[in-house]
Design goal:
By secondary structure, this protein is α/β, with parallel strands linked by helices. The chain contains nine helices and twelve strands. The strands form four sheets. It has a six-stranded parallel β-sheet with strand order 2-1-3-4-5-10, sandwiched between helices. It is globular, with a radius of gyration of 18 Å. The structure holds NADP nicotinamide-adenine-dinucleotide phosphate.
Amino acid sequence: MNILLLGAQGQVGAALRPLLASVGKLTAWTRADLDLQQPAQIRARVLEVRPQLIINAAAYTAVDRAESEPHIAHAINASAPAVFAAVARQCDALLVHYSTDYVFDGNKTTPYLEEDAAHPLNVYGHTKLEGERAIQSSGCRHLIFRTSWVYSATGHNFLRTILRLAKTQSRLRIVADQQGAPTAAPMIARLTLQAIQAVQADTQRAGLYHLSAAGQTTWHGFAQAIVQAAGVDVPVDAITTLDYPTPARRPVYSLLDHQRLRTQLGLSPTSWQAGLDEVMATLV
Ligand SMILES: NC(=O)c1ccc[n+]([C@@H]2O[C@H](COP(=O)([O-])OP(=O)(O)OC[C@H]3O[C@@H](n4cnc5c(N)ncnc54)[C@H](OP(=O)(O)O)[C@@H]3O)[C@@H](O)[C@H]2O)c1
């Protein structure tokens, strides 16, 4: 099977790479191989690979910066996925794509279902939702996974920021009024591979799924767990979103429901605490 992976150096992309290489002939591209800011180039380059499976782990993920760079975020998160979908349809390839809990506004108090109305609060969320819709309306076979609060042992993420700050600051002040599920990239990669195999066995299982860690916490709770796991003795103070203003608004509640993932694909995410243990064990 010819597999094309985009975003091979991102958190999810890097975790996918060895898994995908074990199940097919993998072409793994980074931004240097194909810049998704230029959607016009994408079709011809992808067709060269003749992929049977396209996995788009690339995205514009700088949530706050997107507020001042909406056109760039749109090109990468909405226009590029639309081209991948058109090419996937042309090649009869399965397209795997990732989206976000930030398509929701956070007004619910129970986990979001796939069919709940999306209402993004920020530019990033809007562009990711547009990418989802372009794929869904293209008619290509697809798996779209909405995930949340992604982190890994490498890259730019909350876990690495907390570990850095814990070494240099006498106390940390972390937002405690946003509820969500920190999700480790290695688990996303493993469940992605299992989902692909399930869809290859039965194409009726394709579609949109919520894939995040089980359980819930706040950024403050996550920071406390990180500091504890690292064995660092630094106090973590709880603050509110109002105490820490950011350019992009974020949902106060963005838990994702996993019932569809369990019943349609037979997959059960592990807890966010188990993901943290796994990632901490691989930190260098
Ligand atoms: N991170 C989160 O907290 C989070 C939460 C919910 C959903 N998601 C979704 O999960 C998926 C994977 O996210 P992630 O955390 O693995 O993201 P990530 O670590 O930020 O990786 C994204 C990758 O996309 C690449 N990229 C950005 N702009 C590009 C361009 N113009 N052309 C080609 N490649 C480009 C980046 O390359 P460079 O390294 O060169 O910039 C990077 O390797 C994304 O769809 C994201 O929207 C993420």
